[in-house]
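Sample intake — N-acetyl-1-D-myo-inositol-2-amino-2-deoxy-alpha-D-glucopyranoside deacetylase
Collected from: Actinomycetospora aurantiaca
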Amino acid sequence: MSRLVLVHAHPDDETITCGGLMARAVDAGWDVTLVTCTLGELGEVIPAELRHLEGSDELGPFREKELAAACSAVGVTDHRLLGGRGRWRDSGMVATGEGIRAAAPADLGPGAFAVRADVDLQVHQLVEVLAEAEPDVVVSYDASGGYGHPDHVRAHEITGGAVERIDPLGARVALYATAAAHDEVARGLDALRRRSWLPLPVPPVEDLPTVPDDAVTVRIALGAARVRKLAALRAHATQIGVHDDGSEPPAFALSNGLAQPVTASEGFVLLRGPDGGLAALSA
C-alpha cells in the first residue's frame, strides 16, 4: 500500500490543485494524509450572504468546516492542521499587477505562517507528521508557490526541508510540486470563451500560473473522480464558484471573478526522490 501526504497552505488549495489526485489515491487504496498550514483567515469571501464573515474571527472556523466537507467529498479521512488548530494564521497577500500573481504584504500579523523566524519550528512540526505517516509520496508547491502567495512559498520551503530530514539521500520519498500544464489550460480557456452563457470573463493563459507541458513529470487523469473534485470545489463556497452545465470543461472562479477550467487531469513535477511515485495513478 502506498502512502501520500499533501501539504497545502489554506483550505481550498488542496482541492483546486489535487482534488482529483486525492480521490484517485483513495480509490486505489492509498493512505492519504492532508496537512493544511492555516485556516485562510484573510480570504476574500465571494457569496453576498456569507460576506459578513470576511475579516472576522468567524471566517477561519467556517473555512475549516468547508475543508472537512471537501475532504469528505474526495474520501480523505486523515486531515491535520500544522501545529494544531490556530497555531499558524493566513499571512495575506498583495497583487503584483502581473496576472494572477501575488507577493507578501509589507507587514505580517502575529502568528502569520510566512514569518521568517518560524521556519525551523514549522519544519519540525511537519517532520513529526511525516515520521508518523511514513509517506512514499509528498506533494506541495514549487519554489514560487504556484503564483507567489507567501504562504504557498513557505509551504514549499518547509515541505522540502521536512522531506530532506526524513529521507536525506532522496532514495525513498518522492517529492512533487503541483503544476498546471500550459497547453491543457489554454485549450480549456478557449473552450470557456465559446460559452455564451458563462457570466464571467476568461483570462489569457499568460495570466495564469502554468508550466510547459513537457515539464510535467506525471499527469493524473481524473476520469470519474472529477465529479468528486467538483463536489469538493463546491464545498469551499466562501472561496470558489463552480459553473457546470455539463459542457466540457466545467469552470470555477475565485474572488477575482475570472473563469478557469477544471481540466481533465492534474499535473505534477518531480522535485526530489525516486521517479515513478505517482506513476501507478497515471494509467
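Post-analysis note: The mean pLDDT is 95.
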